[in-house]
Amino acid sequence: MRNYIVISGTIFTIVAFAHLLRIFDGWVVTVNGQVVPAYTSYLAFVATGLLAAWAFRAK
Fold it and tell me: Which end of the chain is flanked by fewer CB atoms within 10 Å, N or C?
């Protein structure tokens, strides 16, 4: 179970940093021809950051 928690926390951390990069670099994400607003990366950064902190706190 410990390995699962560490791997999950690491993946959530990587995803959180990817969203942070999108925020700072201004990357444009298009899904099915629609541009995804930048505020979704703010929300996703907070959510994945909290999940990563929760995973690392649980180990």
Answer: N
- Spatial neighbors of 47 by CB under 8 A, at least 6 apart, are none
pLDDT in tens, 8-51: 999 999 999 999 999 999 999 999 999 999 999 999 999 999 99
Residue identified by tokens 């670099």 is 25
Dist. CA 31–CA 43, nearest whole Å: 17
Token pair in block for residue 35 = 């541009």
Cα–Cα distance list, 6 to 16, 44, 48 (Å): 15, 20, 14
